[in-house]
Design brief:
single chain; about 450 residues; alpha+beta; 7-stranded mixed beta sheet; 14 strands
Length: about 450
């Protein structure tokens, strides 16, 4: 992950003093937390607006959640699977450790944080029953410190929680701290510029910091972070249109050529009728609203949100069933590229997890330690396919491409080899049925010696 931006660094061998802890936390609180909180607010549909007061918004459109779910739904629509290099043995213990904690659900939660915050953190630990497990850490109170060499090795992981007073208010510059280095887990109370140990140091056996930072991309940006102002503009436009409708209901009714008495006004309110002289008239005073122009602007904003977040709008009419597979794929090219980048960063974190798990499992003689290169992570992403179009392509490639490759193209066939065996078995059964009885003697046509009328 050498091309990721590393925000928190120290010279290798530097001690993490109380002064440095304060500097890092202050930086995290001032530079990262406001941004992360804002991104989370858009996902939770309570936006901390970029360019307009929330009171001016009457209609929230949760593009943020849509963008996150589309990206993650494609990347992890099916759980990832793992292949191991030849010669690697006893990997069952690793897979069982994953299954025991439903690691696929944990991966989905990490991917959601990736999409929202642009980063996610996973801590690997050993529970009281000596089982290895993973848990997610909140990016709003977690950061990892790397060395400032070209390799950027992890030095520390810091997780901090505010200390609250009796009234539930966070006490300034007081935190409960967990600092993890490559050998030890340390817990402190930070107050008044001092680090006071709150528990005995706890050694671990991972030989490196057991906290994994998953970046969403090189710049640690969320999937919808680049379109926040466009989302605001869309909400403002739609809210203004709602306001216009409300003002139309409450429009002023003006009368010309007639003097209205109080009784006449009451009749209008109650009876909704009024009598006017022949030369008088009444009309509502409303502003002209260009609904057609407003709707064109709405469509343009929506298209820009999808375009610049590189997320397809699945309600687009061009995704209708009559579109060819190639035409749809062209519309999804930018989306595939973006998810491909996310997947490569995510894969690096999953490899690191497998290595850390193997180190612990090795201490229990359950498997050998893995290297990152021993693990291949397979993303089983799927898209709806036009199976009729695929079947036509398969027919055109018979005797040119192998059966196994052709059958693999069918979305409803989970195992190509097994399907070919089933087809061959059924064909064999039909042949056996058609040959049944051919080698049996034909009793009706057979002439027995006793039936021969000619005696010899």
């Amino acid at each position: 992950m050498a091309n990721k931006i590393y925000k928190y660094t120290l010279p290798r061998g530097a001690e993490l003093t109380a002064v440095l802890v304060k500097q890092f936390i202050d930086r995290h609180q001032s530079e990262d937390v406001p941004r992360l909180t804002q991104l989370e607010s858009y996902f939770d549909d309570e936006p901390d607006r970029v360019n307009t007061p929330p009171n001016d918004i009457k209609a929230n459109h949760n593009f943020a959640k849509y963008i996150t779910h589309i990206n993650n739904g494609y990347m992890l629509s099916n759980p990832v699977s793992y292949n191991f290099a030849k010669g690697v043995k006893k990997t069952d213990a690793l897979i069982e450790a994953y299954k025991a904690q439903s690691i696929d659900d944990h991966d989905a939660e990490l991917a959601e944080s990736l999409s929202v915050f642009g980063r996610a953190y996973e801590r690997i630990y050993v529970d009281e029953d000596s089982n290895i497990e993973s848990t997610e850490l909140d990016p709003k109170n977690t950061f990892v410190i790397y060395d400032n060499s070209v390799k950027h090795r992890k030095l520390y992981a810091v997780n901090y929680e505010p200390v609250y007073d009796d009234k539930g208010r966070a006490v300034k510059d007081q935190y409960g701290l967990t600092i993890i280095d490559p050998r030890t887990i340390r817990r402190y109370k930070y107050a008044g510029g001092n680090l006071v140990p709150s528990e005995a140091d706890e050694p671990h056996f991972f030989a490196e910091v057991p906290v994994i930072e998953f970046p969403n991309n090189k710049r640690l940006k969320g999937d919808y972070e680049s379109v926040l102002t466009l989302i605001d503009d869309y909400d403002i436009l739609q809210s203004d249109r709602i306001t216009d409708r409300e003002e139309l209901v409450d429009a002023i009714l003006a009368f010309y050529g007639v003097k209205m008495t109080t009784e006449d006004k009451e009749d209008i309110k109650k009876k909704r009728t009024v009598g006017l002289p022949a030369d008088a008239k009444g009309e509502y005073i409303v502003k002209d609203v260009d609904e057609a122009g407003a709707d064109i602007l709405r469509q343009t904003l929506a298209a820009d949100i999808h375009k610049f977040s590189m997320t397809p709008d699945l309600s687009d009419k061009e995704f209708a069933g009559n579109s060819s597979g190639v035409a749809i794929l062209y519309k999804l090219v930018a989306f595939f590229w973006n998810v491909g980048i996310k997947s490569r960063y995510f894969e690096a974190g999953l490899r690191e997890r497998a290595v850390l798990y193997s180190r612990f499992l090795k201490t229990k003689s359950k498997m050998e330690e893995l290297k990152s290169s021993d693990v291949d992570v397979v993303f089983n992403s799927i898209l709806p396919k036009n199976d009729l179009e695929t079947s036509q392509m398969i027919n055109n490639l018979v005797d040119i491409v192998s059966k196994k490759t052709l059958v693999r193209q069918l979305s409803f066939v989970p195992d190509a080899e097994e399907e070919i065996k089933n087809v061959e078995a059924e064909a064999g059964a039909r042949i056996d049925d058609s040959e049944f009885g051919k080698n049996e003697p034909d009793d009706q046509n057979k002439i027995h010696a006793d039936d021969n009328p000619l005696e010899v």
